[in-house]
Amino acid sequence: xxxxxxxxxxxxxxxxxxxxxxxxxxxxxxxxxxxxxxxxxxxxxxxxxxxxxxxxxxxxxxxxxxxxxxxxxxxxxxxxxxxxxxxxxxxxxxxxxxxxxxxxxxxxxxxxxxxxxxxxxxxxxxxxxxxxxxxxxxxxxxxxxxxxxxxxxxxxxxxxxxxxxxxxxxxxxxxxxxxxxxxxxxxxxxxxxxxxxxxxxxxxxxxxxxxxxxxxxxxxxxxxxxxxxxxxxxxxxxxxxxxxxxxxxxxxxxxxxxxxxxxxxxxxxxxxxxxxxxxxxxxxxxxxxxxxxxxxxxxxxxxxxxxxxxxxxxxxxxxxxxxxxxxxxxxxxxxxxxxxxxxxxxxxxxxxxxxxxxxxxxxxxxxxxxxxxxxxxxxxxxxxxxxxxxxxxxxxxxxxxxxxxxxxxxxxxxxxxxxxxxxxxxxxxxxxxxxxxxxxxxxxxxxxxxxxxxxxxxxxxxxxxxxxxxxxxxxxxxxxxxxxxxxxxxxxxxxxxxxxxxxxxxxxxxxxxxxxxxxxxxxxxxxxxxxxxxxxxxxxxxxxxxxxxxxxxxxxxxxxxxxxxxxxxxxxxxxxxxxxxxxxxxxxxxxxxxxxxxxxxxxxxxxxxxxxxxxxxxxxxxxxxxxxxxxxxxxxxxxxxxxxxxxxxxxxxxxxxxxxxxxxxxxxxxxxxxxxxx
Length: 678
Known about the structure:
α12 packs across α13 (376-383) and α17 packs antiparallel against α18 (493-509). β2 and β3 form a beta hairpin. The strands form 6 sheets. A 7-stranded parallel sheet has the order 5-13-12-11-10-9-6. The protein is an alpha/beta fold.
């Protein structure tokens, strides 16, 4: 029975799941009737605004209560996932049979706040858009829960000039004026429209655009804005909207200019989304040197709001094929966040495409956000049973092994980065090679519905093997060896075979990109063919000692990067020496091997998204004398491109030191690949 028509959608969900479970079609009643002595189900919307469900049962009566329709839906999903199987499946007559009866405990009282560690739970992976997944794991989704998300006010309403921020005395369309009456009116109209169309999409993110600009108009300054702090005006607007729409909940963000809370309690239907982007990644935070600072950040917000959500991250966004095994680490961090008052978690994975172990991660995160005491090894083994008992076990064994190693290793594991960081944290090339051989044997006894998932797993492993070989260069476990007699590299034929298998699998599964920046597999294969397979590495400086005379960036302090045969593609994070702090000054000893008429070849990466540009110039000297080459690089409008320059040299036998200095631009770093001399 449903007394409030706002609960009709929840009633239909109960009806659907009840029929799926028992085969019986229920009638939905929207008026009060006397059902004394008969089984009955009541769905009730309460006025307490506590954002949780309660399930009560006695004497063949089932009562599900919730503050909002979505709370009723969560209660219904919880009932069918946790209560019905536990108390009724033993009465089932066999697999696939419908239940004849659903037996309730004599005294049933389930409180959502006691059985769910976080109220809002979203593992943001492609599979979470599936209705079946949402029902099975009782998860939330952007599409169903948010009327306005992220930096999207400009898409939510039509902007006018008087809504733009006043910056340095001029209206700037890159940012908003949160004191603008026109902005408030437009938002009020659109929020009302959105809530009318779908009351469940009752969360609205009111946050500045993705930059640090702040409006300094008279009204914003009066509210308390400064040149770097927009929180006063943003929160003042949020508080107004919260009073107009008591059924909605309005969030600000702890991000850039809006990261400073105001010193007054906010309405009950407001909250904050705190991004963990600038928190250390891949380590347990509690007990670390970062604990006190993070606690302080949450404490400030907890003093003014009870709704604290976090925006956390589950994958390597530069390389979706990286396993990024942080489940055991995140279990401890999520416990820490709950202690700090967090009530909701948005765990970001890949929006589309494929990332390694994505469905497994989505499943475990969904369960973990509901129950922080989840037995992760048991849950992983249970999920992977669909591969078959044998193959599921070795997939689970490998994945648990790297998760455990990552937990024990104190090195960070960033959500943006290359293979070298994974090697320092959890990755072992010989283990990955064995794992690939093991999963290559699987297939015949795999459930056909999961075969694509197995193929995608093979793709991720093969991609990582190729990346390991590429980053190792011409050396042990690299893509080949350097033949000093021929003065060039020789390619590993087994690697070519793995490359061919990967290409075929990509065509079969029809995957297009392998990272957040939409780097395409097609271009990746082209780079392998053009820069490695069809262009033998030839360098008189290979294996020669060199000395760096300048300050190197912390993560790029290995001089071997410049002469190891490890070729950089159009990805900044593998095989490039990145210089953002200083010029790059290199010295090579001159011997008979490299003297004579030569060509110096240097390649740079232009990647404007990551503030990497061409250097300002280059100078080449012998023994500290006047430069024999002094070249200034011309500006380019390219956004992403490898650029190679060649310079003629005439190195005399009496010269002792070859010095190369690459001059960085004042406002941008540069990425340098191999320094080649032929």
